[in-house]
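Look over what follows to help learners.
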Amino acid sequence: MAINPVTRRLDRDLECRQQYVAAGIATYAPSVVVDRAHGAELWDVDGKRYIDFAGGIGTVNAGHTPATVVDAIREQAEKLIHSCFSVATYEPYLEMCRRLTEIVPGGFDKKTALFNSGAEAVENAVKIARAYTGRPGIIAFENAFHGRTMMAMSLTGRERPYRAGFGPLAQDVHHAPFPYTYRCDCPNHQTHCSVESGEDLLDRLEREVDASQVAAIIVEPVQGEGGFVVAPPGFLRKLREICDQYEMLLIIDEIQTGFGRTGRMFGFEHAGIQPDLVLLAKSMAAGLPLSGVVGRAQVMDAPGPGGIGGTFGGNPVACAAGLAVLDLFETDDLVDRARHIGALVSARFTAIQERLPLVGDVRGIGAMQAMELVLDRAGKEPAKEATAEILRRAHDRGLLVIKAGLYDNVIRFLAPLVIDDSTLHEGLDILESVMTEVAEG
């Protein structure tokens, strides 16, 4: 029997990965080789269609290949692909900085620096904070994820797979508990949780950490890789108070939560606080590598010339894409769309929870929703194998969906905000179907 040439192409690609790609680079759907994508859909090299509930891990809130972004990329590429901002200034970088300082809330003068990735934004934010305060210490949180480079990895509050075997880690990093309500072991968590109230952190600053040597606290408004654990607004407000009390900086990591994902442009807006530094990346440029740190002008100016930057940071083509993305958020009201999508997904996830004991918790905010799967609701033992099987079956049936969480048992929703209701429900139908099959054996 003759082998279909298209199938041969898929087999060849998978064999190429096995032979040439480092094993440490994991893939949620290793048997899917994407050929093209648009909106909230992808097609593999066999021509099979997939509904995208992963969104490039939250990188394409504006959708795959939006026409205006593609046009902006093409136009900029024909004029200037690279010159390096450290050599000579160019307008897309300047305009991107201006636009970001305008959309990031804060009743004070702000400045911006552009980089390539979320991890670079984290690394440079720490440098900026240390330069401004003259202090070395950074407080991060358990179960957090801030990246895989040295300082970002050290700030990440999960040993495997992110830190194990890669030590020694960066010094002067302290981890505090994060208010993970579903798995809170605080004796009085129903009425008063010392972690959520910030009392635990205050106690640690008294007993374990010299607050006078702490430059900043870094926190995600929603722990992304940690399993979509939402920081209560009161907790974020307390962190702001603690930073003010001890003259620390508050760094908000919006790398996964930013650009409309939570139903506000930035996740910290739900708490009504003003951070000193805000970290941006992922959906900033519709899939092109672009990140930034936006913060108080006097803080951002603390490093001397040459203290921050990089060869490719704020590349003109990436900046052109980022500017087109910001335009899309204005013209298409993607933030409002996130609220609509979030309401639909939350309602559907809750209905699944009511029907399937496999679902221990449903949580999220805006279009950042998740289900935590457990073997039994009383013991809350993570259903890791069931989660992996659900993902595998969903991928087979044309739905790209990914997991998260400390125990790899959280199914997370990160579909592009341009997904239409019909496609959204089609994907939710697939997900519910495979979950029912796995739950019922």
Notes: The mean pLDDT is 95.
